[in-house]
Amino acid sequence: MVAVTGITGKVGSRVARGLLAQGQTVRAVVRSWAKGDEWAALGCDVSVASIDDAAAMTEAFRGVDAVFLRSEKRRVGKE
């Protein structure tokens, strides 16, 4: 299984669709359940996590063989 972050963006969605086309199992890591609906319909396992929530990211990556990490540029842990 490959976890893909940034899956709702241009790069992440292309990576995920390519993996699915190759028969790979994909875990869509999204920031809200609403953003995961499309990916669940395509057969992805969906996990809700934000890059600034270490516990949620750890859980999202549990059991995967690889991670494609794509994130917007922002300061983690800063307001």
Secondary-structure element series: EHEHEHE
**For the report, how would you describe the main beta sheet?**
4 strands, parallel
User: Mean pLDDT, as a whole number?
Assistant: 91
Low-confidence stretches: none
Spatial ordering of strands, largest sheet: 3-2-1-4
What is the radius of gyration computed over CA atoms, rounded to a whole number of angstroms?
12 Å
What coarse outline follows from CA principal-axis ratios?
globular
Indicate the structural class: alpha/beta
Distance between the termini: 34 Å
Count of separate DSSP helical elements: 3
- Strand tally is 4
Bin the strand percentage: 15-25%
Q: Assign a percent range to the helix content.
A: 25-40%
How does this model look, in words?
Helix content is 37%, strand content 20%. With 79 residues, the chain is an alpha/beta fold. Strands 3-2-1-4 form a four-stranded parallel beta sheet, with helices on both faces. It has helices at residues 10-21, 33-41, 54-61; strands at residues 2-5, 26-30, 45-48, 66-68. Strand 1 (2-5), helix 1 and strand 2 form a beta-alpha-beta unit.
Summarize the structure.
The protein has 79 residues and is of the alpha/beta class.
